[in-house]
Amino acid sequence: MEMLMLCLHSILFFIFLVSLNINISSAKTSYNVLTYGARPNGKTDSTQAFLDAWTAACGSTAPTMIYIPKGRYLLGSVAFTGGNCKSPDITIRIDGTLIAPEDYRILGLASNWLSFEGVSGVSIVGGALDAKGSPLWDCKSKGSNCPAGATTLSFVNSNNIKIDGLLSLNSQMFHIVINGCQNVKVQGVRVIAAGDSPNTDGIHVQLSTDVAIMNSSIKTGDDCISIGPGTKNLWIERVRCGPGHGISIGSLAKTMDEPGVQNVTVKSTIFTGTTNGFRIKSWARHSTGFVQAIRFIGATMINVQNPIIIDQNYCPHNLNCPNQVSGIQISDVMYQGIRGTSATPVAIKFDCSFKYPCKGIRLQNVNLTYFNKEAQSTCTNAIGKTYGQVQPDNCL
Ligand SMILES: *[C@@H]1O[C@H](CO)[C@@H](O)[C@H](O)[C@H]1NC(C)=O
Ligand SMILES: *[C@@H]1O[C@H](CO)[C@@H](O)[C@H](O)[C@H]1NC(C)=O
Ligand SMILES: *[C@@H]1O[C@H](CO)[C@@H](O)[C@H](O)[C@H]1NC(C)=O
């Protein structure tokens, strides 16, 4: 009996040691911004404290965590750069809200509010970013002399990034930008801005590979997600859009020499009251760009003005493009399992380039109606096929 008890004891002790060890090895060295002088009162500028915490976390060779406790932190425009970072893994855990200065001109003249440049292994977990953009939108709507405005959160030339459970409120310009990055996971993000706020795209991706955007909700005044040149292997799943302009590949052909967009999958999207559902848009201009291997799978459209649209003749104000055709070759684009209601009579519109017609368009099990009536489709320079039930009747 005694032997047994002893044996049991050592087993329990062993289990205890193992669990202790697991706890120790998963703990990260933590850098609390309060230690660096940040004040959670919403009034004291905490920009330098955040930068100092970043520098400290970065300088460690171990995985680190920057902790931002509950409270409101006033931050000006700040760039977190990776140049001197040794830490392979920096988690920024935000339990509080970061707020922009009251005077919109302070951020308005900077192009970014919070930017990460050349970083690797950075995760942002939780938190709210309140950019206080509405006075700038008001200024713009009055047409007075207003600054362009700042992107709320951007990652530039960075790898292995996670954004998890973040709330972005009232950005001056774009809410989140992923530019020149590899391996980015955006999960459970919420974006909220007024439906008439200008240029407040939810998430913009460009020149980036292996980006996933999952389980997110985006209510804003411009594109829900905009996909720019040089995007490859983008996966979007379970995103809710609206109000806003929907999910857009483009505008492309902004410049003559432009990398293409390829291998984009958008699954299980819900659009509510958006101007577009799935849009591909290019300027009517020459360009080396292209769009290839795009899958729009499973979507519910509720009162969407242009549920499915390709517009290759974009030429606002007829400037720098009249009488030109788009050089963007669009091919292999699938629309599958898309149902719901169009807010205009034309639910499907393919307006493609005369010089480079859209090729390999595939419509499968699409059912879009217009006020319980049949909707219409229009096609110009579009080649493709339909499979299964497709309403409105295709014009391909
Ligand atoms: C997204 O949500 C679904 C359903 O709630 C869940 O199963 C999945 O794990 C989530 N995705 C991520 C990346 O957390
Ligand atoms: C397309 O992208 C997905 C991720 O979004 C990736 O898993 C897949 O391998 C890519 N396909 C090709 C052919 O590169
Ligand atoms: C298309 O949707 C309408 C409205 O929801 C429905 O009444 C109709 O039966 C559907 N058609 C097909 C072929 O599923």
UniProtKB/TrEMBL annotation:
<comment type="similarity">
    <text>Belongs to the glycosyl hydrolase 28 family.</text>
</comment>
<keyword id="KW-0964">Secreted</keyword>
<keyword id="KW-0326">Glycosidase</keyword>
<dbReference type="GO" id="GO:0005576">
    <property type="term" value="C:extracellular region"/>
</dbReference>
<dbReference type="GO" id="GO:0071555">
    <property type="term" value="P:cell wall organization"/>
</dbReference>
<keyword id="KW-0961">Cell wall biogenesis/degradation</keyword>
<dbReference type="InterPro" id="IPR006626">
    <property type="entry name" value="PbH1"/>
</dbReference>
<feature type="signal peptide">
    <location>
        <begin position="1"/>
        <end position="27"/>
    </location>
</feature>
<keyword id="KW-0378">Hydrolase</keyword>
<dbReference type="Pfam" id="PF00295">
    <property type="entry name" value="Glyco_hydro_28"/>
</dbReference>
<dbReference type="GO" id="GO:0005975">
    <property type="term" value="P:carbohydrate metabolic process"/>
</dbReference>
<feature type="active site">
    <location>
        <position position="245"/>
    </location>
</feature>
<dbReference type="InterPro" id="IPR000743">
    <property type="entry name" value="Glyco_hydro_28"/>
</dbReference>
<keyword id="KW-0732">Signal</keyword>
<protein>
    <recommendedName>
        <fullName>Polygalacturonase-like</fullName>
    </recommendedName>
</protein>
<dbReference type="GO" id="GO:0004650">
    <property type="term" value="F:polygalacturonase activity"/>
</dbReference>
